[in-house]
Write a structure and sequence with these properties.
alpha+beta, 6 helices, Ubiquitin-like (UB roll), Alpha-Beta Plaits, two-stranded antiparallel ribbon
Amino acid sequence: MVSFMLNGAQVQADPKWNLLEAVQFYGINIPTLCHDEGLTPYGVCRMCVVEVGDQNRTKLVASCMHPITEGLNVRTHSSRVIKTRKMILELLIARCPSSKKLQDMAAMLELKQVRFDPLNEDCILCGLCVRMCEEQMVAKAIGYAGRGTDRYITTPFDMTSDECRKCGACMYICPVCELRCQGPQASTTLCSGCINTEPVCAPDYGEAMCFMVPCLSCVKKPEDVK
């Protein structure tokens, strides 16, 4: 077992686990989009970002790809982490505003605005469908094509693949296939219909003190305690 610091508490975890698995083992919720327990970690969505390091020498890492090392200091809900997750989600919603999965996640993270023009795409390039088709269905009927902003998911040579069994596994695991409650022609980019309580302690303490979803923290400053 490997010992490390998790939100100020010393814990232990199996060295074969990645950081995301270790954090989830202790019941702390970390949002993910491209991760699935039955698939190889991919680390592309970056929603599972956490802060590692000590004092002023810290960095943000994708927890699904980061190994556990002895003495590692991890903060899962620091102000920097919360701000980064909101920015990533803001960009993803601007790309696919019709996704119920993204809208629900925005409500959970208390995202209140999207400052980018919506693109109304139908894919966030999380790679779940590609890995599902290859690793679980053993078909490899779809894959990536193009590079950079021109990257997209398709069948080989953009033709109907003989390897595709039309099993629907790619649609089942896709985070953007399920439409938001308002439908595809919603008048607003952000729904905010199920918005939760933002961690009220994060601005004062530099990190959230409660890991419940939604956050129910009511921590007071030391000077407010009589």
